[in-house]
TrEMBL record:
Annotated source species: Janthinobacterium aestuarii
Protein name (database record): N-acetylglucosamine-6-phosphate deacetylase
Keywords on record: Carbohydrate metabolism, Hydrolase, Metal-binding
Family: Belongs to the metallo-dependent hydrolases superfamily. NagA family.
CDD domains: NagA
Superkingdom classification of source: Bacteria
EC number from the UniProt entry: 3.5.1.25
Residue intervals of the Amidohydrolase-related domain: 37-356
Molecular function as annotated in GO: N-acetylglucosamine-6-phosphate deacetylase activity
């Protein structure tokens, strides 16, 4: 049982929440101590690494990533791949399969895979390696058979990709536009074909002007869901505010790399070498290359931007859960998984529970 100020689907209450693996009861009690804030655990749909390890390494990398991010309030996540040659992607997926099948001790629940690449536009790679290929249903099915793909990023303007979108959507995969040089019209056509969202909005896609709205314009004009990196490095505050007004269920992701939780220095991002300095990660060229963001910091950044705490929480828990169709996560309600983050007055995690099990925060 926990006591505090609790965010429920109906709004804030002061009271107690009782749980085992799932939430049993939430009771209002005005006399309860309201010094602590109790939120649904965060759900990160785009995370590459932490603590010096990268998902693309395979093996136990996914378990380490799940453990590090759990200490920052992330209770569920998608292990995210990078563009690479097929054997490297298969190795990463094989490593993730074990973590998906069995939650690592002291770690977040790995819900599946975000396949970010290799179906990208060579001219909008950002920090992705250049090993792009044209997507095919057979190739996606081969990947999906190893570890369940929940989200797939692609450039819809590549020949053959638009026609593939409905088939991928029929498999239950959320197809997202990202690393794309496509036009506004190509973005709208992809949405009409079954695209569900946009990958790290603004980054890795054609920008918007009043004469040429580009892929960003398609997102701002038409999207219900899109992910964005709220580290205040990838997107300026004004652009973030515009997206918050335009896209009803804009949600935050970390796009965290192996440099997350590590000192400044050189790290790996797939086959690329990246450099952490001044709170961000860059290639040797100076281009941004993922982030060192954690979801608790994302919450604080949203609040500092002016969002009320409930709205900020929804954009890190409820909306990503709903996007995946995870109706028993991302909310504090009887019957839902007991994925809970408890915050102090500075919005710092003091307790985290994944499916009712307390996470050891001592090594954060």
């Amino acid at each position: 049982m926990l006591s505090g100020r609790i965010l429920t689907p109906s709004g804030w209450i002061t009271g107690t929440i009782t749980f085992d693996q799932r939430i049993v009861q939430i009771q209002e009690d005005p006399a309860a101590d309201s010094a602590l804030t109790i939120l649904p655990g965060f759900i990160d749909l785009h995370v590459h690494g932490a603590a010096g390890v990268d998902i693309m390494e395979g093996g136990n990398a996914g378990a380490t990533v799940a453990q590090v991010h759990a200490r920052h309030g992330t209770t569920a996540l998608l292990g995210t791949t990078l563009t690479a040659k097929e054997p490297s992607i298969l190795r990463a997926l094989q490593g993730l399969a074990g973590v998906i099948a069995e939650r690592p001790a002291n770690g977040a629940r790995m819900l599946g895979v975000h396949l970010e690449g290799p179906f990208l536009n060579l001219h909008r790679l950002g920090a992705q390696p250049p090993d792009v290929v044209q997507a095919s249903l057979a190739l996606v099915q081969r990947f999906h058979a190893i570890a369940p793909i929940k989200v797939l990023t692609m450039a819809p303007e590549i020949p053959g990709h638009l026609e593939l979108i409905p088939q991928l959507a029929a498999m239950g995969i959320r197809v997202q536009i990202g690393h794309s040089a496509g036009t506004y019209d190509e973005g709208v056509a992809a949405l009409n074909a079954g695209v569900s969202g946009f990958t790290h909005l603004y980054n890795g896609m054609t920008g918007m002007t009043h004469y040429d709205p580009g892929m960003v314009g398609a997102a701002l004009a038409h999207a219900e869901y899109a992910e964005i990196i709220p580290d205040l490095q990838h997107v300026a505050k004004g652009a973030l505010r515009a997206a918050l007004r335009a896209i009803p269920r804009l949600y935050g992701v970390t796009d965290a790399t192996s440099a997350t939780g590590m000192p400044d220095g050189e790290y790996g991002l797939g086959t690329q070498r990246v450099y952490k300095c001044l709170g961000c990660v860059r290639l040797a060229t100076g281009s941004l290359a993922g982030s060192v963001l954690t979801m608790d910091q994302a919450l604080r950044n949203f609040v500092d931007l002016g969002l009320d705490l409930a709205d900020a929480s929804n954009r890190l828990s409820l909306y990503p859960a709903d996007y995946l169709g995870e109706s028993e996560r991302g909310r504090l309600a009887p019957g839902a998984w007991a994925d809970i983050v408890v915050l102090d007055s500075q919005l710092q995690p003091v307790s985290v529970f994944v499916e009712g099990t307390a996470i050891d925060l001592s090594t954060r």
